[in-house]
Specification:
About 35% of the residues lie in helices and about 10% in strands. The longest helix has 13 residues. Strands 2-1-3-4 form a 4-stranded mixed sheet. The chain is globular and about 40 Å long. The protein has about 110 residues and is α+β, with helices and mostly antiparallel strands.
């Protein structure tokens, strides 16, 4: 099964979802993370699957990133910010349960299909 952390208002997220639908026979679970907020544990698991730091999983150009003074924040603070402000999570993220990728560009998701 593939899980996509999806924002239907984002063109890259929509493109990624269409790509995996067209190229994978796996069942797809869609999590609209702005409606179904992710937990701290969810984010930590995604970070492990992505093999990246919290800031690499964040939309650092969002106004909320600057407003919350996150530029020099530690990992714990960044993870907490993604829980309380899910808009800061980079999108889309696709996972097969053992690995994850950020769908920027959308073709990154093909590695999991």
């Amino acid at each position: 099964m593939l899980t996509i952390y999806h924002n239907p208002r984002c063109s890259k997220s929509r493109e990624t979802l269409e790509l995996i639908k067209e190229n994978s026979s796996k069942e797809i679970k869609i999590i609209e993370y702005l409606k179904e907020p992710v937990t701290q544990e969810d984010i930590k698991k995604l970070l492990t699957l992505l093999s990246c730091s919290p800031v690499e999983m964040m939309r650092t150009k969002e106004a909320e990133f600057k407003e919350q003074n996150l530029k020099s924040a530690d990992d714990k603070t960044l993870i907490a910010a993604m829980v309380t402000t899910p808009k800061l999570i980079e999108r889309p993220i696709v996972s097969d349960g053992s690995k994850a990728v950020i769908g920027r560009p959308p073709t990154n998701a093909l590695a999991l299909c």
